[in-house]
Design goal:
- The protein is mainly α.
- The protein has one domain (about 5-345).
- It is built from 17 helices and no strands.
- Helix 5 (about 100-105) runs antiparallel to helix 6 (about 115-135) and helix 6 (about 115-135) runs parallel beside helix 15.
- The longest helix is centred in the middle third of the chain and has 24 residues, at about 115-135.
- The radius of gyration is 19 Å and the shape is globular.
Length: about 350
């Protein structure tokens, strides 16, 4: 193995390690916290998302400004962004996890392995559906994919006000729903670094800053769902000729996400040694096998349908990709709507 390849492997695991460590350390990995966000009872998840977006946007903007990276943009696929986001939102509420959170759950909740299995199956099923999806929902033929391209301005002209708006939203959320009350962690935001539980704002910021080493090491941004398809493709290759869709997930940079996800698993395990689940929290029965399988299937099928999971959408929002705003908004719309219908039955 040459030095550059070794550095890439170690680097991607390093990025994933801190990503998984940060998720576990602020307790957003707990299924109840994920579901409570969709029930508008707990705002840990939205805080970590807003801080993740802010730090990620700053990181990406700086790297682009100094021409240290070459950005690539996904085309706008309105209906796929909308439908895929809704499917992800439903799946997130069902299993209490998204693609990036499912792995950090495994060291504590062994039943979450079925969420991952369901996700791998969802990725495989989508792969066979992809030719139909591409034909039925083609990408929009437009000269722009991002907000800054639409207005024909520099990236930072849009991203700087965007970050400021996110920080303002975080400020008011923290004023109205303090993290130390939601987590019983009586400390300031950055003072939580010395505590068992971190503020979601601290964790989200660390996750967003991981965009810098991710881009510099592998040339791609942070995402979690491609690894599920890559793993499924590895198994399929042993038994059947692969569809073209799967072949792309057996090549770099898609395969890098397996290293990232493995690092996230290691990081969450390391964090769990210092931050065990709350007392009396059920760790052996957080969901039935069927529920976790269905939820896992939906989050990955939905992610591939929308061409990006929650983490991937946040990375894309950092570049102001229009489709990512639709996807992430649809995730919450789908999750909250399903939650309302489910609890009304």
């Amino acid at each position: 193995m040459n030095t550059s390849k070794r550095n890439l492997i170690v680097g991607e695991i390093f990025v994933g390690f801190f990503f998984g460590f940060a998720i576990q350390k602020c307790n957003v990995y707990l299924p109840s916290i994920v579901r409570d966000q969709m029930e508008i009872k707990n705002f840990t998840m939205i805080k970590i998302i807003l801080s993740f977006i802010s730090a990620s946007t700053i990181s990406t903007t700086l790297l682009n400004y100094f021409r240290m990276i070459k950005l690539e943009f996904l085309p706008i696929i309105y209906r796929r962004n909308l439908i895929g986001g809704i499917l992800m939102g439903v799946g997130i509420y069902v299993c209490g996890a998204c693609p990036g959170i499912a792995l950090p759950q495994v060291p504590i909740f062994y039943s979450s392995i079925f969420t991952i299995i369901g996700g791998i199956v969802g990725g495989v099923v989508y792969g066979y559906c992809d030719p139909y999806v591409q034909k039925k929902f083609p990408a929009q033929k437009q000269s722009f994919s991002t907000i800054f391209q639409y207005f024909n301005v520099s990236m930072q002209t849009i991203t700087i006000p965007f970050v400021i708006l996110n920080i303002i939203a975080l400020y008011f959320l923290e004023q109205w729903y303090p993290s130390q009350i939601e987590s019983s962690n009586k400390t300031t935001i950055f003072g939580s670094l010395t505590n068992q539980i971190w503020s979601p704002i601290v964790s989200g910021t660390i996750m967003g800053l991981m965009q810098i080493p991710s881009y510099l090491i592998s040339g791609v941004d942070i995402g979690a769902s491609s690894a599920y398809v890559s793993i499924g493709a590895f198994f399929l290759k042993k038994y059947t000729p692969l569809e073209n869709y799967f072949k792309t997930f057996l090549k770099s940079p898609k395969t890098y996400q397996i290293l990232f996800d493995f690092g996230a698993l290691l990081g969450s395990f390391a964090s769990s040694l210092f931050n065990p689940p709350p007392k009396n929290y059920p760790t052996t029965n957080v969901g039935t096998i069927v529920v976790n399988l269905i939820g896992g299937f939906l989050i990955i099928f939905g992610a591939r349908f929308a061409d990006g999971c929650t983490s991937g959408s946040i990375s894309a929002m950092s570049k102001t990709e229009i489709g990512s705003f639709i996807t992430l908004s649809s995730v919450f719309f789908g999750g909250i709507l399903f939650c309302y219908i489910f609890n009304s039955l």
